[in-house]
User: Fold this.
Amino acid sequence: MSLLKNIKYSVLDLAVVRKGDTLTDTFQNTVDCAKIVEDLGYSRYWLSEHHNMPNVASSATAILIGHVAGNTTKIKVGSGGIMLPNHTALSVAEQFGTLDALYPGRIDLGLGRAPGTDQLTASILRRGDNFTNYNFELEIKELQRYLNAENCKNKVRAIPGEGANIDLYILGSSTESAYLAAELGLPYAFAGHFAPQQFYDAVAIYKRNFKPSIYLNKPYAMVCVNVIAGNSDDEAHLLSLSMFQSFLNIITDQRSALVSPEETNLQEANEQQKYVLKGMTALSFIGSKSTLCQSLTKFVEDCGVDEIIINSNIYDQKAKRKSYQIVSELFR
Assistant:
């Protein structure tokens, strides 16, 4: 039996805006995809907080999570992640406590330290504080306190939030986050879809240093990677051009909407840009079902993760849903 049959598989959605689509179109695409992956057996559907990006519409993450949860029935929906320095722990507890009350047992709360935006926008979100000495661990513990039913004895309480049944996850793209997740005894999700360089070291550190907690008795490692499937390798690689263009746009600071493969201009990238692009997309798996079966199986053998979260940045929505279907067949 393939190793892939033994691990969970999930989706990360950034609510990417396609060229020619309205925001209403974008959110409808998100809901449509969530319904499809729910039927295909995916474990969770995560949305990520980003700001000041014309091509990404997931800035009001908690609201979008509620919208997706309200249009699905069983799949877990959550944040991959909420960027905690942009918020107070109390406000996050209240927002996700509300979501948990509306959709009991279905809400995940992944937490990240990065701003999810540029420094200028981050300074506005944070009311001018540059958070040089921000203590991520203490803020997580404060959030846990607000979510704990025993906080009812304190003067400041999260209502909703207090006593909520919400699973917390530490997100990261470095070894620093791995040490923190291990210390707190929480599941760890690595952002391999755009920052793969420290992935293998981070997972090893997390597993080696993990301390059992009331939340988790053994390490649970997750990784988000880019996966694009097609009926053939050639079709998948054609579809992937939109994804590579979106990463090139980040490198060149041109945050434009997602374009079709026919509208990409990757050939215009210089050697330095190509080098950076290759590094950013090192954990990308592209191909037919048989090709992906081989590459993803070897990947799981090498890293030993418990769950793969897939990011599929495909322009054509029909092809995107087909990709989700092909991938699900590898894990079921």
About this structure: The CA atoms of residues 18 and 277 lie 21 Å apart.
